[in-house]
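Box 3.1 A note on notation
Throughout this textbook, protein chains are presented in two layers. The first layer is the amino acid sequence; the second is a token string describing backbone geometry. Keep the layers aligned when reading.
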Amino acid sequence: MGEVLVTGGFNGDWTTNAELYDSAAGSWTATGAMNTGRANHTATLLPNGKVLVAGGFGQYDALASAELYDPTTGSWILTTPLNTARSRYPATLLPNGKVLVAGGAGVGVSYLSSTELYDVGLGFNASWQPQIASFTLPLPTNTCLTLAGSGFRGTSEGSGGNGCQDSATDYPAVQLRRLDNEQSLFLLATNWQTNSFTSAPVTGLPAGWAMATVFVNGIPSPSVLLRLDAMPLLPLYLSHAAVLPGGAFQLGFTNISALGFTVLATTNPTLPLSKWTMLGNASEVAPGQYQFTHTQAATTPRCFYRVRSP
């Protein structure tokens, strides 16, 4: 859950208005207005958290102007304009942090074949930039992301003011950002070294492709693409069933690949798995054989079960 920035458009004139939609509250609030009224432009979320708006169609024709939105201040500042005025074009954030714009409609509604790159220009020494060499792929949800590379510890640290209160601030921040909707998540670390990073279990992002970026002292690494996978489901092979005293029943099943698992139960199999009940008393009774008990009143509908790996 997060905020969505909506900018410009045409309402009888080319507007400079911008608004934020809060998906958690379901509400809209006005934020700072752009410097130039425009429609048919692009808005790209940059690795530094700012939003690049460029081109589009204005009062007279296609625009070349570009500006940056700072979410911390709710304000816009002009940045380097496009080399070619254009509207109705795609803009793509590349793994190296640059933005590629291509084609579109130019001045006089001419069709363009040119492309150009926008560099946010953070101005850091190239030797300070962290690099990702390998990573977990695919990454099942609720599992830890492990990265290996270089430069994961920064060139400087902060200080608390005296020896007993000093705390290192050179640790990396790792961001996952989905490609389809730019939903992003910063991961908590469980272990990090100069050449490695291990996160806490990743939750909160649905399955799909995402970009992973390491930030050290505010410097982003070139991003890598990884695939977030839904929790794998394992088939359940029933080996025996027995009614126990007190109305419970016991099911036994085998699955040689179910090393580490949870059992989910529901009376409505059309519900998403997040709505199923997790049974906590499943146990391995022999290599490759597992059993659990589940109490269910005789008058309730029959129950359905799924086995899920960790």
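The chain has no helices and 28 strands. The domain at 3-118 is CATH 2.120.10.80 (Neuraminidase).
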